[in-house]
Amino acid sequence: MDHLTILYRGPLASCDYDCPYCPFAKRRDTSEQLRADRAALERFTEWVAGCGRPVSVLFTPWGEGLVRSWYRRALTGLSHLPHVERVAIQTNLSHRVSWTADADLTRLALWATYHPGQVPYERFLGKCRDLASRGVRFSVGIVGQPEHLDAARRLRADLPAGTYLWVNAAEGRVYDDAEAASWTGIDPLFPVSRRPHASRGLACRTGETVVSVDGDGTVRRCHFVPSVLGNLYDGTFQDALAPRPCPLDTCDCHIGYVHLEPLGLYDTFAGGVLERIPALFGQA
């Protein structure tokens, strides 16, 4: 069977940070909600373990997953499965990183984001250096807010050699050429993020070789298109997998537009599509 990439987002929505640009900042899940998220994640990992096809998984929780033991166990366990080519998660690195010692580092990767004002700089940098010393694949990113520019330049200078630092354009922000040039000096791929991509009618891998799955197993082509393809657990999504153009006017999130075929980003990020590591950084 063909390789399938899954973006999994369960019901977890709690985060330990209070970023002003995030609607889920400092949100708390109840004990019942956390139990539901854990059960959903364990069901998902059981499905992956027995799916009988090559897969890669990116966890994209609304909240922070790695402070929860079940996410650390899921990443570790999936990394040891021979049919799992890559397992990655988006994280703020607020939790210790020693758990990665139990994972298969040929398959594990982290997509880490630095949020100035939420964590001391040296603490975050220390986590990055710890990951590098352990041989963990990871990228680091920052949101391109004007007040973050100095911190981003400092981080670019201090990160371990070979670590990619990406910059996400702030949602709704229009960058003039001078601003864009400043950010491009930090992340040479910032022009890809600078403006939303016109996407309607373009060929996209989502819905064919890439799908989004929620905690109930509902399968959609991506996080941004609400139409349902079927369910993971009853197998009804299988027959719906097919090439289909994007139905949206624009796509402005990396986890969406990276799969737009005309952009050619599978070549740019060859070997590191899920964890956002470009091939030019030589970590593939």
Describe the structure.
InterPro entries: Aldolase_TIM, Radical_SAM_STM4011-like, rSAM_sf. This is Radical SAM protein. With 284 residues, the protein is α/β, with parallel strands linked by helices. The chain has a single domain, classed as TIM Barrel (Alpha-Beta Barrel), CATH 3.20.20. It is 27% helix and 20% strand. The protein contains eight helices and 13 strands. A nine-stranded mixed sheet has the order 6-5-4-3-2-1-9-10-11. Strands 7-13 form a two-stranded antiparallel ribbon. It has a two-stranded antiparallel sheet with strand order 8-12. α1 (31-50) links the parallel β1 (4-9) and β2 (55-59). α1 (31-50) runs parallel beside α2 (69-79). The protein starts with a strand and ends in a 16-residue tail after the last helix.
Summed up, the helix count is: 8
Cα end-to-end separation: 24 Å
CATH architecture tag: Alpha-Beta Barrel
Helix content, binned percent: 25-40%
Quick synopsis:
This protein has a single domain, classed as Alpha-Beta Barrel (TIM Barrel). 27% of the residues lie in helices and 20% in strands.
Task: Give the helices and strands, then pairings.
Layout: E1 4-9, H1 31-50, E2 55-59, H2 69-79, E3 84-91, E4 108-113, H3 121-134, E5 137-143, H4 149-158, E6 165-168, H5 177-184, H6 190-194, E7 197-198, E8 203-204, E9 210-214, E10 218-220, E11 228-231, E12 244-245, E13 250-251, H7 254-257, H8 265-268
InterPro entries: Aldolase_TIM, Radical_SAM_STM4011-like, rSAM_sf
Organism: Actinomadura darangshiensis
Protein name: Radical SAM protein
